[in-house]
Write a structure and sequence with these properties.
By secondary structure, this protein is of the alpha+beta class. The chain has a single domain, classed as Nucleoside Triphosphate Pyrophosphohydrolase. It has helices spanning 18-27, 84-96, and strands at 2-6, 9-13, 38-41, 44-56, 59-60, 63-64, 71-72, 75-77, 102-116, 119-131. The chain is globular.
Length: 133
């Protein structure tokens, strides 16, 4: 454990690699995907994800989730060392088979706090405007 002192306040830090972080959470049962940024921290589920906004004739594409029948923008969890743009394109291919999608631009970066599936959630979500020819 390292001590970092600034403005006469002591702060404790431990320098660890991403691999060590992942291994630590996996060993505690708090890591959900192989490399996805989804963690249980105490009783809070933390995640980072991306979504695609695809417009066509003044309509926006939504998908019906398999696990709960809600409608959502297509997207998914960000894996460690994966760019948001890569996640959107990968998820669109996985979920719809679409391979021609192009990122037009980022739309938002948002932070959400909510309850879902009986768990308190804390999520960072990157939204992208996507064009499908």
């Amino acid at each position: 454990m390292a001590i970092y002192k600034k403005n006469n306040r002591k702060k404790y830090y431990k320098w660890i690699t991403t691999k060590e972080l992942i291994t630590s959470y996996q060993s505690k049962g708090g890591f959900y995907g192989k490399n996805d940024i989804r963690l249980m921290i105490g009783n809070i589920k933390f995640g980072a994800r991306t979504v695609a906004v695809i417009k066509n004739n003044n309509k926006i594409l939504f998908q019906k989730r398999k696990d709960n029948e809600n409608w959502a923008l297509p997207g998914g969890a960000i894996a460690t060392m994966e760019k948001g743009e890569e996640v959107v394109l990968r998820e669109l291919e996985e979920e719809t088979g679409e391979t021609e999608a192009k990122i037009k631009r980022p739309l938002w970066f948002a932070e959400y706090f909510f309850t879902f599936g009986g768990l308190t959630q804390h999520q960072y979500i990157l939204g992208y405007l996507v064009d499908i020819p």
